[in-house]
Amino acid sequence: MVNYFNDFASLCFERFGNRVKHWITFNNPWSVAVEGYETGEHAPGIKLKGTGAYRAAHHIIKAHAKVWHTYDSQWRSKQNGMVGISLSGDWGEPVDITNQKDIEAAERYVQFYMGWFATPIFHGDYPQAMKEFIGRKSAQLGMGTSRLPTFSSQEKSYIKGTCDFLGVGHFTTRYITHKTHPVAQPSCYFKDRDLAELVDPQWPDPGSEWLYSVPWGFRRLLNFIKTQYGNPMIYITENGVSEKMMCPELCDDWRIQYFKDYINEMLKDPLSSHMEMVTEIVVPTVCTLGILISAVFLMFLFRRHN
User: pTM for the full model?
Assistant: First the structure.
């Protein structure tokens, strides 16, 4: 399939490369792998729990790399285009930011989602958390090798750096806490992560049960990509929200607010979460203290004058 896909891409470069300058090899490969080969919700409807998604993703990554190299060696100098990939990723926020297990679980949530594809493409291999957790659970099931496929040293070098830009599809956020799932036959992608997903009941009600409006999570994801993958060029290829209620006329206030909030987060300076906390908590506190001190000082002057 890797070679077939490369043939297809080569035909596209030949026929349309004089007009198309930005190429996306795969859009949302997470959905292709998990919902196509793990849960079977999407085509081709295969349910190989615990193995199918990992195998499909492995070949998707290799296919992407081959197409990038084909364009780089045969077409880039003639067409001056770029080749990237579009990855979906929700943000995972620790339920308890003082709990190391929750912090690590939130990291795993993002790494098992976007990092599954981004880390090999930018760094040459799967995220360490995936290798550790899937390998350990595979061993507990009595398997001699991990259910997560491995790249050879040559493949790692070949895959690393095959991204001129990163497309990002982002919609929502989850609070994440550590949860140890018992090892059972068969295992699955979701249990391999050892975590639980939660939502805040104060988040605005969504039009879809999975899509909550959490703008600050968007900014955290963008900062994660910047620090993890060397500040790549990013295009937001998917973003939006479903309507909360049936409306016979045009009523997009909810959607307008969603886009406004998410775009505003994207436009903010790339501060760390600690700096955000300083801005959101410390600055208002200092201002309040300043007002109180000023009030006390004025009272002192007023009494002294009298």
Answer: 0.86
214 token code pair: 């959490």
Q: Are both 143 and 287 inside the same structural domain? A: no
How many structural domains comprise the chain?
2
Q: What is the mean pLDDT of each run of 10 residues along the chain (306 residues)?
A: 98 98 98 97 96 98 98 98 97 97 98 98 98 95 95 98 98 96 85 96 84 96 97 96 78 89 89 39 45 59 61
Domain of 94? 2-270
How far apart, in whole angstroms, are the C-alpha atoms of residue 121 and residue 150?
14
CA distances (Å), origin 91, targets 66, 105, 115, 158, 223: 29, 12, 11, 29, 11
SS (H, E, C) 22-89: EEEEEECHHHHHHHHHCCCCCCCCCCCCCCHHHHHHHHHHHHHHHHHHHHHHHCHHHHCCEEEEEEEC
Rounded Cα gap, residues 103 and 288, in angstroms: 32
Query: CB burial class (10 A; 0-12, 13-18, 19+) of residue 43?
Result: exposed
Q: Tell whether 103 and 168 lie within a shared domain.
A: yes
Map residue 5 onto helix, strand or coil.
helix
CB 111 within 8 A of CB 150: no
Residues 27 and 53 both lie in one domain: yes
- DSSP class per residue in 148-165: S----HHHHHHHTT--SS
Question: Which stretch of DSSP H or E encloses residue 227?
Answer: helix 215-229
